[in-house]
Specification:
The chain has seven helices and two strands; from the N terminus they run H-H-H-H-H-H-E-E-H. By secondary structure, the chain is an all-alpha fold. The chain has one domain.
């Protein structure tokens, strides 16, 4: 929940204008560390073969987000460097999140797609899958256009990150509630 909260805070409209850019970057980096620690715990606790693979893929994705958020702390990068050091790890991490969350969703549903609104496990996996979709949209939008040095769509990069983080927060909250 803490990692999701950090990513949500970092992408809230206006946050970047209220604090130093290094604080915004630090917010995302701290969030990525919490995502990785949660993914590691999930991996260690995996019981089935599919859970093991899904949690491993998610863990790998979080490491890519660690790289992405750490490199985003550096200033003065040109468009090529930003795309190589920030966009690429973000994109790879987002692919990992999509794959792992879809695997978990398919396991919960017992088939590739399904709706089972009465099950908390379904809501958790659906929220994680939706969060992964939002993170992927944000990753695409964060591509830096070499001709302008601007993001492809800064608004979508921020709103996709915010929406994804809120989905992950909701899923984590459901997980905590279910576990208590």
């Amino acid at each position: 929940m803490v990692g999701s909260l950090c990513f949500a805070l970092g992408s809230v409209p206006g946050y970047a204008s209220l604090v130093d850019p290094a604080v915004v970057g630090g917010t995302f980096f701290v969030g990525s560390i919490f995502f990785t620690s949660a993914a590691l715990l999930q991996f260690v606790q995996a019981r089935t073969r599919v859970d093991w693979w899904a949690s491993l893929i998610q863990l790998v994705g979080t490491v890519w987000f660690n790289i992405n958020t750490y490199d985003a702390l550096h200033t003065g990068l040109d468009a090529h460097e930003e795309n190589l050091r920030i966009f690429t790890p973000d994109f790879i991490g987002s692919i990992c999140f999509l794959v792992s969350s879809w695997m978990a969703y398919a396991v919960v549903c017992g088939r590739p797609f399904g709706i089972e609104r009465g099950r908390t496990d379904w809501w958790i996996s659906a929220a994680n899958l939706l969060g992964s979709v939002f993170f992927m949209a944000a990753a695409f939008a964060a591509f830096v256009l070499p001709s302008t040095d601007n993001l492809l769509d800064a608004s979508l990069a921020n709103s996709g990150t915010l929406a994804g983080a809120l989905c992950f927060f909701w899923a984590a909250r459901l997980q905590v509630t279910r576990s208590v």
